[in-house]
Amino acid sequence: MTLEHALIRGLGSLIAPGGRQGRLAVLMYHRVLAEADPIHDFGTPVSTFDAQMAALADVFNVLPLAEAVERMHAGTLPPRAVAITFDDGYRDNVEVACPILRRHGLSATFFISTAMLDGGIMFHDAVSEVIRRFPADHIELAWLGLGTLPLNEPGSRCAAIDRIARAIKPGAPQQRFEITRKLADSAGIALPTDLMMTDDHVRQLAASGMEIGGHTHDHPILTSISDDEVREQIMVNRRRLESITGRTLTLFAYPNGKPNQDYTVRHAAIVRECGYRAAVSTAYGSGGMETDLMQIPRIAPWEMSTRGFVLRLVAFGQRTRNLHTSAA
Question: What predicted TM-score, i.e. pTM, was given to this entire model?
Answer without folding.
Answer: 0.91
